[in-house]
Amino acid sequence: MQNIEWEKLPFGYFKTDYNVRSYYRDGNWGEIEVSSSEYINIHMAATCLHYGQEAFEGMKAYRGSDNKIRLFRWKDNAARMRESSKGILMAQMPDELFYEMVTKAVRLNEKYVPPFGHGAALYIRPLLIGTGVQVGVNPAKEYLFMVFVGPVGPYFKEGFNPVTIQIVRDIDRAAPLGTGHIKVGGNYAGSLRASERAKAEGFAAVLFLEAKEKKYIDEAGPANFFAIKGNKYITPKSDSILPSITNKSLMQLAQDMGLEVERRPVAVEELAGFDEVGACGTAAIISPIKKIVDRDTQKVYEFCKDGKAGPVSEQLYNKLQAIQYGKEEDKHGWVTLLD
Ligand code: PLP
Ligand code: COI
Question: Whole-model pTM above 0.85?
Answer without folding.
Answer: yes
